[in-house]
Amino acid sequence: MTQQNNMPLDGIRILDFTQVMLGPCATQVLADFGADVIKVERPDTGDLSRNFFGEASEEAMNNAVFSSLNRNKRSIEIDTKSEVGRQMVFDLVKVSDVVIDNFRAGVMDRLGFGYADLSKINPRIICASGTGFGETGPYAHKGGQDVLAQAMSGVMEKTSDPSIPKSIYPTTLCDYTAGMHLVQGVMAALLARANSGVGQKVSVSLYDSMIAMQMQEAAQWSKHRTVLNWAAMPLTGVFETTDGAVVVVGAFKANPLQDICMALAIEDLSGQYPDLASQRQNKKFLQTLFRDNFATNSTQHWIGRLEERDLLCAPVRSLGEALADPQTAINDMLVDIEHPILGEMTLVGSPVHLSDAPLNVRHTPPRLGQHTDEIVREFNLASRQAERTAV
């Protein structure tokens, strides 16, 4: 754990009620930028990610999944349902800049921690919420989750080919995207407050983030009632090789079909299928031809051949291979820490690189309630310390 001055969000304090993925990935970004993020956790259980493996051991409650999202934060145990706990929250709001949650719509209001209540305590407070589908409307109180947002937003419906069954995207696409939108909202609200002197409410949702991600497709559908599917382009695909797979993007060139045929050392079909319309009509034939030829040699062989023709291509790799790639290290995308429970760990770093404020781990991912006493003393909550219910 090291110290660093002059971080972009030095002096900004965030009261963090978030858990699992959407909220924690957002508050970790803000913490990496220098904000003092105080993670409010429930008695005994804390963030749901602490129970990812369904075990109660200290190692399980500080697992890699939780740790990946919670560096540079301090953890305080508060029973928010007790009067003492509620008052502790209110006292912390008085000295905070932002309150962030990713509960279902209305939960913070029912707890008495909604923007209308907290802005009376601190007019400068910014309340930021990430929900599944928004805070009003027919789905406001529906349980929000990454896979559901994929399905309901139209993202899951599209495949690269109609013969391929629809499936769940295996990475938390919606959570991460909404989390980064939450960061944008908080940063914008902080800038606005610098001029106005007052806070405001910030809202994002998994659903909205997935609709926004399809801005090109939505414009095409709204104007022309035609489906834009980048993965279904006739000269683009993933093709098995003798030792793996290669992805080819047959686009952004004057005659990509000719270049693919040259790379594969087969007959030039660009005269027979000269435009996108004819290539689409004959996609099945072209893709089968490509597939049969790519299957005859190694990934490295085909990458060399394709790159000779300046075609966009890449090997299909595992996460482990990507993490071991020198480019990943050169880009400072890995950070090594010494966790007090788990020992040596490697976490993913920040994709945002600031020349004057490189990523710095001030706090390792916290144990449940690790900083409770420290925070109680720091903000003069000691008079309630004896009454606190451990979280």
List the helices and strands and how they pair.
Blueprint: E1 13-16, H1 22-32, E2 36-41, H2 64-67, E3 73-77, H3 83-94, E4 98-101, H4 107-111, H5 115-121, E5 126-131, H6 146-152, H7 173-196, E6 201-205, H8 206-213, H9 215-224, E7 237-240, E8 245-249, H10 256-264, H11 276-281, H12 283-294, H13 299-308, E9 312-315, H14 319-324, H15 326-330, E10 334-339, E11 343-348, H16 372-378
Parallel strand pairs: 1-2, 1-4, 2-3, 4-5, 5-6
Antiparallel strand pairs: 7-8, 8-9, 10-11
Helix pairs in contact: 1-7, 7-8, 10-13
Walkthrough of the structure:
The protein is built from 16 helices and 11 strands. The chain is α/β, with parallel strands linked by helices. The chain has 2 domains: 264 residues, Rossmann fold (3-Layer(aba) Sandwich), CATH 3.40.50.10540; 71 residues, no CATH class. Strands 3-2-1-4-5-6 form a 6-stranded parallel beta sheet, with helices on both faces. The longest helix has 24 residues. The C terminus is likely disordered.
